[in-house]
Amino acid sequence: QVANSVVDAFVHTVEQYVTKPVDAKIQDRFAEGILLTLIEDGPKALKEPENYDVRANVMWAATQALNGLIGAGVPQDWATHM
């Protein structure tokens, strides 16, 4: 379940980040932070399931991946969900 959640959050972020190039620097940097956190802490969450800090970072990244902030004013493509 943890691995699925990490991948889901990653895909949601990518769908908003790489769809079309626009000058949305804040959204891009925020998306990059989410992706880096998932890349760094996702595997740790699987290896260290009792590590509260790692799991908290993954949960926070997953929450931010689809709360609308990184997609504000940015064209999005949700075709991977079809």
TrEMBL record:
- InterPro entries referenced in this protein's UniProt entry, alphabetically: ADH_Fe_C, BDH-like
Q: Where is the Fe-containing alcohol dehydrogenase-like C-terminal domain?
A: 3-81
**What EC number(s) would the UniProt record show?**
1.1.1.1
Q: Name one GO molecular function term.
A: alcohol dehydrogenase (NAD+) activity
Keywords for this protein: Oxidoreductase
Q: Does the keyword Amino-acid biosynthesis apply?
A: no
Q: Which PANTHER family match?
A: ALCOHOL DEHYDROGENASE YQHD (PTHR43633:SF1)
Q: What is this protein called?
A: Iron-containing alcohol dehydrogenase
